[in-house]
Amino acid sequence: MLKDLKLSHIVSGAVAVLVGYTGSVAIIFQAIEAVGATQPQANSWMLALGGGMGVTCLILSLMYRMPILTAWSTPGAALLAVSLNSVPLGEAVGAFLFSALLLTLTGITGWFAALSRLIPDSLASAMLAGILFQFGLTAFTSLQTDTALVAVMGLTFLAGRKLFPRYTIPAVLAAGVAWCAGTGAFGSFNALDLTLARPEFVMPAFSLPVLIGVGLPLYIVTMSSQNMPGVVALKAAGYQPPVSASLTVTGLASLLLAPFGGFAFNLAAITAAICAGPEADENPETRYLAGVMTGLVYILVGLGGATVISLFLIAPKALVATVAGLALLATIGNSLSAALADSTGREAALITFMTTVSGVSFFGIGAPFWALVLGLAVNHLLTPPARTPARAGKPA
Which of 199, 161, 152, 110 is nearest to 316 (CA)? Predict the structure, then answer.
């Protein structure tokens, strides 16, 4: 395994963790504050979430030799941030366990794998392109807030694509860090918190209203807004992910870590796209090492707890946004190309893409789920059914 390890694997893993944390850490803190957790309990949440993601990434990537990445449920965290006010922490943990049990049963029964096979590849690619679109867009909107930094990184990207395509994104990251260091764009390092996180067990309590009002919606949003795009991300990259096994692993991790703050784990989409694309490795068979590196970095981040979070806080937002956006350009382009290639299903794919980009949400369920619902409905209405070949000896 070590002989196949490349710098691009390490950088892709680091970028995936960077994107995963910076995109939703603030939401996690809002959920922590809503439930009234103490500082040690808050540190335990970050330890459980980072460690859980790291271990599940390692298990799945090594077991199946695919860049299978996991993540905490970001829409689940948003749900918790608005639903846990006045809910005792023990009852919140009980809701986490209820959701985790449902996630585990979903993986064991295998019905989600059967459902994922019913989605046309064009719609899957369209949804992935829509999910990643906003991240690609931020690489350009950041030009307005930090023109010089983004321009340096953009020029490095163009030079890299021309001269050293395999190391384009590492060069972009290095150029961005060097520019920030030289211009003093990083915040004060005196703000670093070197406290190590420790696990804090919370005894679960069970309340039927909290199970129905928090646990069940947490399961629904995690399945519809997280696991489905996660499967799509790997399929769009040419992999056939072990869906049921992956959901079982993430569900069991949620069960084990819920009392420590690991409220829900699921398949990752955006970070998986970073590690499953050609920027991580030209050889699809060894891209799983990017997933392994991601898992190791996640574990270190979890152990570092507040230290790593404070690092993210002193880094310019434009640096993270530009690295993520440029790293995903190839995947966005390939997904759009695959989505719109077949003229017979183009309208359905375009509607799927536009609905995903819109960010609409109904009943607490995010846009990717509704994009697939609309896309499948339009595809069924507009795509002619396959014609059955005529039997020999009878008129066609």
Answer: 152
**Token pair belonging to 306:** 């507040």
The tally of CA atoms less than 13 A away on the side-chain side of residue 113 is 14
pLDDT in tens, 292-337: 999 999 999 888 876 766 666 677 878 877 887 887 787 788 888 8
Dist. CA 239–CA 60, nearest whole Å = 13
Q: Is residue 395 part of a domain?
A: no
Identity of the amino acid at 238 = G
Provide the residue range defining the domain that includes 188.
Answer: 2-332
**Predicted TM-score (pTM) of this structure:** 0.69
72-97 b/e (C-beta count within 10 Å ≥ 16 → b): bbbbbbbbbbebbeebebbbbbbbbb
Residue count (the chain): 396
Strand partners, 365: 362
Mean pLDDT: which of 72-81, 91-100, 281-290 is highest? 91-100
3-state secondary structure of 29: helix
Identify which of 178, 181, 197 has the alpha carbon closest to the alpha carbon of residue 189. Answer: 181
Nearest Cα residue to 60 out of 266, 221, 261:
266
Q: What is the mean pLDDT of residues 278-291?
A: 87
Give the number of domains in the chain. Answer: 1
Structural contact between residues 75 and 359, judged by C-beta atoms closer than 8 angstroms? no
What phi, psi does 102 have (nearest 5°)? -65, -40
* Tokens 């029964």 found at: 109
Distance (Å, rounded) from C-alpha 139 to C-alpha 169? 13
* Within a domain: 293: yes
Kind plus residue range of the DSSP H or E element containing 176: helix 168-183
Tell me, yes or no, whether 202 lies in a domain.
yes
Contacts of 288 (CB under 8 A, 6+ apart): 61, 62, 64, 65, 66, 67, 68
Strand partners, 72: 265
Looking at the domain assignment, is residue 206 inside a domain? yes
Three-state DSSP at 316 gives coil
